[in-house]
Amino acid sequence: MPESAAPELTARRYAAQLLRDLAVEPPATLDLSDAHPAVTQARCGLMALSGEPQRPPQLCPAPLAACADGALAALASLAPTDRFAGLRGSALLTERAAVFGHGRNGRQSPGGSCRLLDAADGRVALNLARVEDWDSLPAWLESGTLADWDAVAAAVRTRETHELLERGRLLGLALAQERWVDSAPWFSATHGQPRTARRTAPRVLDLSSLWAGPLCSHLLQRCGADVVKLESTRRPDGARQGPAAFFDLLNAGKRCVALDFATAEGCTQLRALLEQADIVIEASRPRALRQLGIVAEQCVEDYGLTWISLTGYGRAEPQAQWIAYGDDAGVAAGLSQLMAVATGSSMFVGDAIADPLTGLHAALAAWSTHQSGGGRLISLALVDVVRHGLGFEAPGDDLGWKQRHRLWCARLGPEDVQGPQLRMATAAAAALGADTTAVFADWGLTC
Q1: Helix 398-411 vs helix 335-343: angle between axes, to the nearest 10 degrees?
Q2: Rounded to the nearest 10 degrees, what angle do helices 37-44 and 398-411 cross at?
Q3: Which of 104, 119, 131, 170 maximizes the CB count within 10 A of its CB?
Q4: Is the whole model's pTM more than 0.85, yes or no?
Q5: Burial zone of 313 (CB within 10 Å; 0-12 exposed, 13-18 middle, 19+ buried)
Q6: Helices of type H across 136-179
Q7: How far apart (Å, rounded) are the C-alpha atoms in residues 3 and 162?
Q8: What is residue 191's three-state secondary structure?
Q9: Smallest Cα–Cα separation from 419: which of 360, 356, 350?
């Protein structure tokens, strides 16, 4: 897409394209303030989170912040009036960093768990988001104790990328190769049988955790949905262990149910809730639910609901078994490679950017599908959503990306570059399982 094609209207064009992808005719007007994609990126704090910590922030020449604004505007066009007044999609990309106090760290993610490491024939992103991931490193690298990142980096440097990816994924590590990949559709859909009657205020059963899924249900809640957050009594949402300000931001106002999925009773209760839900959000590998006797495709067929499946790389094998988090998914989509082309240095762009970007797109897909009657399984992969944004109106080659980077940088003034902005929660989120009895009674079920 040539730069002369009004970059200030990128968010509008993106919103219209998303709606058309969902077979919805875009409205004549969208609630968007037109801004250059570079300005949007700089003002929402995304640019401030990209680059080396002691050097100036770096601009990404992909319009991801504008895409976020477009996704929220598309959702707002389908929702009741004024449900998103004062909220911008681009600001959602950086609000976790505002709560946590994250800053840019170059080849280390702002959150610190993911790093870009040199391999013998390229570069990989390794995300050690869980403490137990460190226990898998000796088997992965066929080495002794690896006590710190320096030791890991030294061992990775001697291995080829294909070997690192193959062995690491078998061990359940979140890994990505730094490379450029072509654009991809942002979702795939499997059709079932739509419901004959559709609730105006849908019941949303959210089985997800951390960021992408809870953001999706948070946005659906703002649309007017009745959201129930369902957690395991044995493994609650890990975000409960982080700053309450962020957990409350995404989960305040949701009713919280907790079940023991290791028991037959818990699995029976889960199936009962699924049968009564209109929209289900989950972010598990497909086999995890199948081990509980839950097959998403069958639920869609039997109950006519809308099922939102969030994964790292999609539901097809073998990708369905690959682990991904927001930072490494951005690398897998091509973000760090793009920055290497544009600036000469590999780096992370933003804070786990694939998570909030996917949450925005998932909310739009869920609400649109429910309004059209449901009966669809919508699969969104973190990597594909970022790839879709990177590919939107993209230059055709490296020279084009470099030229865009120069033009967009020239568009910015010092006053445009701002840090992430903090959005405050309206209330505290409910405690684990606080509403279990009430939800079962309200949905006509017995505990």
Answers
A1: 80
A2: 70
A3: 104
A4: yes
A5: buried
A6: 137-141, 149-156, 161-170
A7: 37
A8: strand
A9: 350
Sequence-distant (6+) residues with CB within 8 A of 437 are: 447
> In the 8-state DSSP scheme, what is residue 136?
G
Helical H runs in 23-126? 37-44, 64-78, 89-92, 95-100
Evaluated on CA atoms 278, 282, 286, 290, the torsion sign reads negative
H or E segment to which residue 171 belongs: none
In three-state secondary structure terms, 142 is coil
Give CA–CA dist 66/12, Å, rounded: 9
| d(C-alpha 67, C-alpha 404), whole Å | 17
Q: The dihedral of CA 84, 85, 87, 90: what is its sign?
A: positive
Structural tokens at position 208: 């997800």
Give the β-pairing of 255-259 and 279-282.
Answer: unpaired
Alpha-carbon distance values, 224 to 142, 323, 354, 372 (Å): 52, 32, 25, 16
pLDDT digits (tens, 9 = 90+) for 328-361: 999 999 999 999 999 999 999 999 999 999 999 9
Mean pLDDT by 10 residues, the chain (447 residues): 74 97 93 93 98 96 98 97 93 97 97 98 97 95 90 96 97 95 90 74 96 98 97 96 96 98 94 96 92 93 95 95 97 97 97 98 97 95 97 95 97 95 94 97 87
Nearest alpha carbon to residue 33 among 47, 23, 48, 43 = 43
Please choose, from the candidates 444, 46, 33, the residue with its C-alpha nearest in 3D space to the C-alpha of residue 272.
444
Query: What local confidence, expressed as pLDDT, does residue 1 receive?
Result: 47
CA gap 276, 256 in Å, rounded: 16
From residue 36, give the alpha-carbon distance in Å to each of 31, 58, 152, 389.
Answer: 16, 16, 41, 16
Contact 401, 344 (CB under 8 A): no
For residue 405, which amino acid is it?
A: H
Give the integer Cα–Cα distance in Å for 38 and 276: 44
Per the structure block, which two tokens stand in for 223?
């649309």
Cβ–Cβ under 8 Å, residues 412 and 38: yes
Of residues 385, 237, 361, 362, the one with CA closest to residue 306: 362
pLDDT of res. 402: 97
Per-state percent for the chain, helix, strand, coil, to nearest 5: 45, 10, 45
